[in-house]
Amino acid sequence: MRRGRAEGILALALVLGLGVAAADARAAGAPDADALARQGKCAEAVPLYQKAFRETRDLGVRLGLANCLIALGRTDDAMKEIEAGVGNKTWGPRFLVARGRVHAARRELREAGIDFTRARELAPRDPEIRRAVGDFYRERGTWTLAIPEYRAALELDSSRVEVETALAEALFNDRQSDQALRTYRHAAGRDTTFAPAQLGLGDLLLRSRTTDPAPVAEAATALRRYTRLKPSDPKGWVLLARAEHQLGAADAARAALEQAHQLGDTTSEAALEIVRPERGAPPGSVAAANEAQLGHQLELAGRLEAADSVYRVLLSRDSTSVQASFATAARARVLYRRKDYRHALPLFDRALTLDPKNDEAHFYRGITLKELGRPADAVAAIRRSTELDPKHGDRFFWLGALEEQRGNRAAAEAAYARSVELEPAGELAAKANRQIGFLRLRARQWTAALPPLRRAVELDAGDPQAWLWLAQGLQNAGDRAAAADAYRRVLELDPRNVPAQKGLRSLGTASGVHAVPTSGSRRH
């Protein structure tokens, strides 16, 4: 899903989130501020909230004020209002959410994650808090974690179409396209005036690969609604132009594209060739539609030769633009997936010559260099990718792995820690915490190694390597009973694990023996 649309829905979610506090504030004497907040007019709502709070001292009003200040970017002022309510037994969880939003706005992601998690623990049955946690994960692109939060929010309150739309977006980005389509359809059908649901439905339907004109017609209907609701958004007009074009309505397609041009969009009529049906195909055919996306889908499906053919077609049309950089990098990525690293590297170099800011090309070039035995160059390339786009936890993890491989313990630990900040839960976080713990074990920092190792087994209880290192850390820190339990856990998962067998025997025979951290089975 395009970044602009994701950001637009997130901004709308924040404004709608203001109404959560404002809805409580309404009963306390701030109905006008509440109405303005729901419309996104926080600059006008703030003085009304301030006046209402002076008169009522109501925490609901104060929370509405804080959320509006966040929306206006006045995070310092917002934090002053928030800290006064965090300790309140009734309102505290929602103030924690507001504080989490401040931390997120400041890119203090670790602190934000702590606040959102704590709010959820204190009020697991509050649908607005579950939705706010989902928004936090969605903003970071952690779709797998966002999905259960949105589902929980909808189970608690099924009336919120904006939450259902956010769930659909998360499902799509998590590559659950069928569920995403069903969810978009339900959201768009239940409220035909909610613009993001119409845009999401139309966009997703246009991405389908079918010769059936019915989905395209459905997309056109949704996009016509969207352009009526949001006539100043050029994206809606461009998508509508594509839908009309696929339906064979050339005049309507040109008219929609002209509207997009008047709003500043630069998509040309020639660009509609990306969605033009094959010669001789019936109207509605999208067999040749959107080659770039089709190539990527083929690549993800493992059909590498077919994907490469699509990318070659793109390059045959244009070999010098940013689009050519994308296609060149995509061809290189296909070669990388084939483990043809030697031929992939020059294509990544070519892509970066065309577009030096192609962060994904820098990243894949880095891991290609790793496979070619050039770790120093690999580190430089992956580090550059993190500078261009610092929101990918997996890139920092790879950076940490390479720095660890080169013996740069401090740099490795810093990179792993950044990966955990960006993705504090999930498989990647489990591995990053495990590696932080291992590095500290190697430095004989027994006590310091225990928290990340405990977090690793908490996130992935089936990882015998993490349990082994935790056992060795506990043994070296003097907690023999806990170490024995951890060794036994290793053997439950891997009965032939020799280091665990030796560790358990050492606990029974020699009280002063230190466990030596073993790295032979470490997995990156």
- The low-pLDDT segments are 1-28, 273-290, 509-513
| CATH class identity of the domain at 417-524 | Mainly Alpha
CATH superfamily placement of the domain at 417-524: Tetratricopeptide repeat domain
Secondary-structure element string: HHHHHHHHHHHHHHHHHHHHHHHHHHHH
Our Rg estimate from Cα atoms comes to: 27 Å
Task: Note the total helix count.
Answer: 28
Mean pLDDT: 81
* E-strand count: 0
Overview of the molecule:
Helix 1 (3-27) runs antiparallel to helix 2 (31-38) and helix 1 packs antiparallel against helix 4. This protein has 524 residues and is mainly α. Among the domains are: 192-279, Tetratricopeptide repeat domain (Serine Threonine Protein Phosphatase 5, Tetratricopeptide repeat, Alpha Horseshoe); 290-389, Tetratricopeptide repeat domain (Serine Threonine Protein Phosphatase 5, Tetratricopeptide repeat, Alpha Horseshoe); 417-524, Tetratricopeptide repeat domain (Serine Threonine Protein Phosphatase 5, Tetratricopeptide repeat). Helices cover 73% and strands 0% of the residues. It starts with a helix and ends in a 15-residue tail after the last helix. It is built from 28 helices and no strands.
